[in-house]
Amino acid sequence: MDNTVLILGGDGFCGWPTALHLSQNGYHVVIADNFSRRKIDVDLGLGSLTPILPLEERLAAWRETSGKSMDFILIDIAREYDRFLGLLRDVRPRAIVHFAEQRAAPYSMRSSACKRYTVDNNLNATHNVLCAIVESGLDVHLVHLGSMGVYGYTTTKMPIPEGYLPVRIEAPDGSCVEREIMYPPAPGSVYHMTKTQDALFFYFYNKNDGVRITDLHQGIVWGTATDETTMSEALVNRFDYDGDYGTVLNRFLVQSVVGHPLTVYGTGGQTRAFIHIRDTVKCIKLAIEHPPLPGERVKIFNQATETWSVRELAVLVSRLTGCEVRSYADPRKEDLENGLIVENSQFRALGLSPVTLSDGLMSEVRDVVAKYRHRCDLAKIPCTSLWTTGQTVDREGAPLSLAGSPAGATGISIL
Amino acid sequence: MDNTVLILGGDGFCGWPTALHLSQNGYHVVIADNFSRRKIDVDLGLGSLTPILPLEERLAAWRETSGKSMDFILIDIAREYDRFLGLLRDVRPRAIVHFAEQRAAPYSMRSSACKRYTVDNNLNATHNVLCAIVESGLDVHLVHLGSMGVYGYTTTKMPIPEGYLPVRIEAPDGSCVEREIMYPPAPGSVYHMTKTQDALFFYFYNKNDGVRITDLHQGIVWGTATDETTMSEALVNRFDYDGDYGTVLNRFLVQSVVGHPLTVYGTGGQTRAFIHIRDTVKCIKLAIEHPPLPGERVKIFNQATETWSVRELAVLVSRLTGCEVRSYADPRKEDLENGLIVENSQFRALGLSPVTLSDGLMSEVRDVVAKYRHRCDLAKIPCTSLWTTGQTVDREGAPLSLAGSPAGATGISIL
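Output (structure tokens, whole complex):
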């Protein structure tokens, strides 16, 4: 059907609100999911702060609330190629939105088994999707969720361009060659590594088979609610606050409500790009509606609306809530201070009017947290995944001095 | 043991002569192999032109011939992580030489199943090796066989550097940033794609865990015999001449002996880098003996000794043998003409004195072919793997005119 969108991983944190948003906007949505995220919760003894319902009940609630229905298939894309090919041939989607990857950097570094699961699942899932598109003979637009973390070399001198970088190469005879190359990757975790490897799948299948692909390099998502998830409590989106799956701003907001000190790792000088979940779902709809032309190279968008350093965010939340900021040893192997400016003019040109950080939106998150705070397990807040075996992190959270961190090393860049 | 080398894929075309060469030179060699190459022969109804013995018999012959013994373990590196980790802890090798990947571009494009096998096997094998090195806590030097085919943008203006490329990036304020980046990849097959993805595994595990890694971007290997394989007929190396696994020069030499026209695909203007199998084994020994220093980035060598266009090789072999050259439609999606100069000063600095193309060495290969020509299946000579589904290749080999191809578009660069 011309209006069908297949959402791989449509039960997850970004997948579910995307499914609702597309359904609400007239698309016929088919969700494919293997519930891996819910199963990882089981393994880690975690749970979403918000009480998410089983998918079948979510879908029933959506039918009741909106009068629209979505389809669902339980399938493991990385393992069940033949069933996936059959699904594709049956559904004949206009676009596939691919969220079906293990998406937490700390989880990907948790153990040898978690590293291997992340690589095996993410790479085989992406490759199976591309193989099946080619084998089906269908012209399906693939929209993939990448990550801002694929980019190396960040600097405040130059905005990170959207995927491609013009460079000059000097030949030995003194002449210069100008090329536009894929932005040099420099992944900082096994999870981010798989995203840089995905980019090579996309390069090849686009060049060799003409598959139309959009890769969305997304910043850190914050917030939890969208216009659709708030239509009924049964539609509530998941909300992670633990050290592996919780993202930094959401974690700070939870910590501020439950009275845990704000967990700043290292100096907090790491500058990161952010996007609110309301903008995530809008960007994906825009990407679906603006596919690359036939024969066009892989279209790469930076799906981020603002950049902040972790320290700045902690100060903001602390000012809003009075909560204490505490510094912990950094479990990651990363630069403690970095500059970052992100180009995002493509989504702006398509009409995106970004939701940026505001006290109001932060309060909305805190209201959700306050409602479900009785479900919060404080023991799950610290990050316990270490990047290398030699590292030790004081699990008790012995505070480090923040005074020693270079002040003003990074700036805020509102795009 | 300080002198132990673990060879993954040590029963294969490059692996077996490497194992013999290292054993002959005083290393304790442990071979790990799952015999996947022999099993693919079974599936395709192929066989090595030379009558290779089962590995246990090869090892017995080596003990008898040289008085040295090698160990062997039957293991699938991509599937049996725990056994591999145990092996590593038992053997405690000084270096691992990693040939355990599906290594033919045409085979990797043969079908959806072959694409998926290549990706799943090659990526999980490489990642399992890296994970196991980290988990073992051992300081093991990993020597990996990459491919010259990972490099994009070839030109006669500039030699392909060894892995890293200095570039200038212009910032919006007009200032210039100079960086040394990994050479931009542009894989032309699923097989080559996995090699570019391997490079990202190496980047990450080197940076995050300090794993010492040498990646050898090898040209097309030709020849079959080394000083060690010729010590006894029972040690003979495998020799592939089919459209999937045979490499171009070896195929031409077989064709010239059995009276098949030389199969030039497209204009034959594709320039490629070459290396003789005698140099392959020497380069690997040199790489083992010159590991990166602790903390050093991934060491990348171009393991190639000369470049030729396919057309030039055909003319050479035709001149030597009187065999007819015939042109066929190109099953690959590639530039029909390209220039290529390859930097290989690192191996030369370590003392490599390259074996280059000579009538004598070509005759040596033809003698081997003549000896076993009764084992040749002519029907296996054409390449039947198509790069895209829309392509058609005239399997009967309707000759195309070579007259129309641009003459002199590529030059020979002997390095």
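Chain A touches chain B through 54 residues (CB under 8 Å).
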